[in-house]
């Protein structure tokens, strides 16, 4: 992530993976551009795995009738 | 200019829809009643290890505190937060009671080695605490910002038809973790974090979320890792 073209690529990679979409506010873009390559790879890998598990490639779509927050953690 | 907590939230929100997917798959599953005890057991395994993990971070932070203001601030926060997370006569004990209501053999669950992916969640934190900086624990704790929400828990209770007492800790965390997340964010914004601290905390949060997604997907796929009372 040493030059501007690499930084642009991070946003494009995440957009291509369906992790970000629509306009990205400047504040968010600045954060995304600082992600490490490891973290970017992780985000893309997890998204692909979830798409496969969900049987639904592309943007994650909220299921009909589902509540908006479905994390069930006790920690 | 975003604050450190806002930057962390922007980063973890990139994973948030993925992080909610296993729970959604659980709610949608025709096997939700069968899977829920294992799903809860996975989280309970983490909850049982959480206090020793925070104590390790506290010990390391105290050791560094004399010439490390981030460690000093972290130690003060952990001294306040650890008692808030005990939840029972022993750390995580209340979650075990919920599991027992659901027919899980909690003695068997505790006597077995941690499932490898849960061990990876915990072990990764110990590595970062000791080899990098104890502030890594703040990324792990950021998951509290993605706490359960009561309407979703109520839907899960209705979907599974399981006893409400098997959901007490989920309902409790739907309230408590709102405050815990707010306090964590205040701490993040008060510490004199350098970019390398923020990077570590962000990686810690993302890696923890990714591993927990894997753990929960395993439950959805295989029913691991609960030990049911007829599990032998």
Explain what the structure shows.
The complex is a heterodimer of chains A (75) and B (232). Chain A has helices at residues 4-16, 26-33, 37-54. In chain A, 52% of the residues lie in helices and 0% in strands. Chain A is built from three helices and no strands. Chain A has 75 residues and is an all-alpha fold. Chain B has 232 residues and is an all-alpha fold. Chain B has helices at residues 4-28, 32-64, 69-84, 93-101, 106-111, 116-131, 137-141, 150-160, 168-190, 195-222. Chain B is globular and about 55 Å long. The model of chain B is unreliable at 226-232 (pLDDT under 50). Classes of the chains: A mainly alpha (75), B mainly alpha (232). The interface between A and B is large, with 34 and 58 residues.
SSE layout and pairing:
The complex is a heterodimer of chains A (75) and B (232).
Chain A: H1 4-16, H2 26-33, H3 37-54
Chain B: H1 4-28, H2 32-64, H3 69-84, H4 93-101, H5 106-111, H6 116-131, H7 137-141, H8 150-160, H9 168-190, H10 195-222
Helix pairs in contact in B: 1-10, 2-3, 2-4, 2-6, 2-10, 3-9, 6-10
Strand count of chain B: 0
Q: Mind telling me the C-alpha Rg of chain A?
A: 14 Å
Given as residue ranges, the uncertain stretches of chain B (5+ residues, pLDDT < 50) are: 226-232
- The average pLDDT value of chain B, as a whole number, equals 91
Features:
heterodimer, A: 75 residues, mainly alpha, globular, B: 232 residues, disordered C terminus
Offer a quick outline of the entry:
With 75 residues, chain A is mainly alpha-helical. Chain A is built from three helices and no strands. Chain B has 232 residues and is mostly helical.
């Amino acid at each position: 992530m040493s030059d501007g073209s690499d930084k642009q690529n991070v946003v494009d990679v995440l957009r291509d993976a369906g992790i970000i979409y629509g306009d990205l506010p400047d504040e968010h873009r600045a954060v995304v551009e600082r992600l490490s390559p490891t973290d970017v790879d992780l985000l893309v890998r997890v998204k692909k795995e979830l798409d496969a598990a969900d049987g639904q490639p592309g943007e994650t779509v909220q299921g009909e009738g589902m509540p908006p927050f479905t994390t069930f953690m006790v920690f | 200019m975003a604050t450190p907590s806002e930057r962390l939230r922007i980063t973890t929100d990139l994973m948030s829809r993925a992080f909610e997917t296993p729970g959604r798959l659980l709610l949608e599953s025709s096997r939700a009643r069968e899977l829920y005890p294992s799903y809860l057991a996975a989280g309970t395994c983490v909850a049982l290890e959480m206090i020793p993990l925070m104590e390790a971070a506290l010990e390391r932070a105290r050791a560094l505190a004399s010439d490390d203001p981030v460690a000093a601030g972290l130690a003060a926060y952990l001294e306040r937060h650890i008692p808030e997370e005990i939840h029972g006569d022993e750390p995580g004990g209340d979650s075990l009671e919920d599991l027992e209501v659901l027919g899980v053999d909690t003695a068997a669950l505790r006597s077995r080695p941690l499932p490898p992916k849960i061990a990876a969640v915990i072990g990764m934190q110990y590595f970062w605490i000791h080899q990098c900086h104890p502030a890594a624990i703040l990324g792990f704790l950021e998951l509290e910002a993605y706490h359960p929400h009561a309407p979703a828990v109520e839907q899960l209770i209705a979907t599974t038809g399981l006893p409400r007492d098997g959901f007490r800790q989920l309902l409790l965390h739907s309230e408590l973790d709102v405050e815990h997340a707010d306090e964590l964010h205040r701490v993040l914004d008060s510490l004199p974090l350098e970019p390398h601290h923020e990077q570590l905390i962000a990686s810690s949060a993302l890696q923890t979320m990714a591993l927990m997604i894997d753990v929960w997907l395993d439950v959805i796929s295989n029913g691991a890792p609960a030990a049911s009372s007829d599990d032998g």
